[in-house]
Each structure stands twice: as C-alpha cells, then as structure tokens.
C-alpha cells in the first residue's frame, strides 16, 4: 500500500518539483495550500499576494494529476508568529519569524491538517536533508544542510523536534536550484520560471516600518554614529 504524503504547495517552483519527485518515488501525493495572511498593510505592491500563489499551486496540482486542497491557518499564524514578531521588536530584539513559522505552523498546524487528510508524511520544498540513525533502542533524526550551498535552508528548520522530523520529507534536498528549475522547465510546470518569494514567511516582502506601525508606536530615540577610524582603533585594541 502506498504511503500518503501531504505536501505544502506554495505556488513556487521548489514545492512543485518536490511534489513531482514524491510521485515519481511511488508516494500517493496530496497538495495542500496554506493561506496564512490576508492583511495587505505594509506590503510592497510589486509583489504577488496569496491569490496568485494559490492559482499557481492549483495549476501545478492539475498538471501532476494530484488532489489539491487549501486551508486557512491565518488565525494560528497571526497568534503564534506575527504577534511574537511584534512583541520581540517592541522589546528591542530582532526576531526570525521564519524559524518560528516552520516550528509552529508548517510542521504543527499544517501537520494537523495533513493528518486529517490521512497523510503519513508532511513534505515541503526546503533545501535541506534528513538522516536517520538507528541506535540500540531508538531512531535519531538528523537535519542536514542541503546540497546547494547557496540555497541551504536547514537553519530555518533548526527548531524542529524529533517528533516533527520523524514525519518530515524534503524531496529536493539533494538538488541545486538550477537543477530544480531545469526539472520544472522540462515538465513545463507553470512555476518553472516564477520568481522566488522574499520577505517574511507567508507575508512576502513588506515595508517593515509601515508593517510594524500596525501595533507599535513610533518612538523618538538618539542615534549614535561611531566614526570609521574609531571602529578601526577598537578592532586593533582587541
């Protein structure tokens, strides 16, 4: 009996090729799109929003002949990722919402939805690899860097637990970005030449001051600029 994998189809080339690879390797594949953000405040208008992403994800699912679903996770995403981000900036710290997003959303809330669809595994288009080590009494799951040094994303998954890694698959971890593009181009996938997304996980590119002003008040502070020659003297002093 085939193992069922639910893959997060984002509308990008990486998850598209990951879905194809899973199907090629004999898995029963289901595509699931996550809608995690609705507010357009602070978004740079040159970037596509989730409406474009879901359209591309659906086109890929149709091309690969796999079932396609979508789920709205904007509630837990705002509470567990965005609210945390605002809180950290308010305290004067610089957070990494992408790390939290993977731990709290992609491999938690999303995984719950995947289980409801009967998924045995959850897959993503991350450039990283997983290694399984068998010991006398248990299995240990190691997260490894991806083959492509320029695209390695293992850092963003560094907080995944052993339980989360157990059911995670990273099909493109042994490929480089050019190889992924070439596969998508050969398959004539709609996402083959789509621009990579940048910015906050699922919110895309934002004008950060405008985005933060949704909740944080502007504060007047003093900025002290250190002359370059003084910095050099400090380095020489150890």
How would you characterize this protein structure?
This protein is of the alpha/beta class. It has eight helices and seven strands, in the order E-H-E-H-E-H-H-E-E-E-H-E-H-H-H. The strands form two sheets. It has a five-stranded parallel sheet, sandwiched between helices. Strands 5-6 form a two-stranded antiparallel sheet. Helix 1 packs parallel to helix 2. The radius of gyration is 20 Å and the shape is globular. The model has no long low-confidence stretch (mean pLDDT 86).
Question: What is the element layout, followed by pairings?
Answer:
Elements: E1 4-8, H1 13-24, E2 28-35, H2 50-64, E3 68-72, H3 74-90, H4 97-116, E4 121-123, E5 128-134, E6 139-145, H5 162-166, E7 168-169, H6 177-187, H7 208-212, H8 228-236
Parallel strand pairs: 1-2, 1-4, 2-3, 4-7
Antiparallel strand pairs: 5-6
Strand content: 15-25%
Mean pLDDT: 86
Helices, by number, come to 8
Q: Please report the distance between the alpha carbons of the first and last residues.
A: 63 Å
- Morphology: globular
Main β-sheet, spatial strand arrangement: 3-2-1-4-7
Name the structural class: alpha/beta
Quickly list its features.
alpha/beta; 238 residues; two-stranded antiparallel ribbon; 7 strands
Q: What's this entry about, in short?
A:
The chain is an alpha/beta fold. 39% of the residues lie in helices and 16% in strands.
């Amino acid at each position: 009996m085939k193992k069922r994998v639910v893959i997060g189809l984002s509308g990008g080339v990486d998850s598209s090729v990951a879905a194809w690879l899973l199907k090629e390797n004999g898995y029963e594949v289901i595509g699931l799109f996550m809608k995690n953000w609705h507010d357009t405040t602070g978004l740079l208008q040159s970037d596509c929003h989730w409406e474009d992403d879901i359209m591309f994800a659906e086109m890929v699912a149709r091309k690969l002949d796999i079932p396609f679903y979508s789920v709205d996770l904007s509630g837990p995403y705002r509470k567990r990722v965005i609210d945390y981000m605002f809180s950290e900036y308010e305290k004067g710290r610089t957070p990494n919402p992408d790390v939290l997003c993977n731990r709290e959303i992609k491999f938690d809330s999303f995984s719950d939805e995947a289980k409801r669809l009967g998924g045995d595994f959850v897959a993503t288009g991350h450039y990283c690899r997983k290694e399984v080590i068998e010991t006398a009494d248990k299995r240990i799951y190691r997260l490894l860097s991806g083959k492509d040094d320029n695209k390695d994303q293992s850092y963003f998954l560094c907080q995944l637990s052993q339980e989360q890694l157990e059911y995670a698959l990273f099909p493109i971890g042994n490929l480089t970005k050019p190889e992924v593009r070439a596969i998508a181009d050969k398959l004539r996938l709609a996402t083959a030449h789509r621009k990579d997304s940048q910015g906050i996980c699922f919110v895309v590119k934002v004008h950060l001051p405008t985005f933060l002003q949704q909740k944080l008040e502007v504060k007047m502070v003093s900025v002290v600029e250190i002359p370059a020659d003084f910095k050099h003297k400090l380095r020489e002093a150890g």
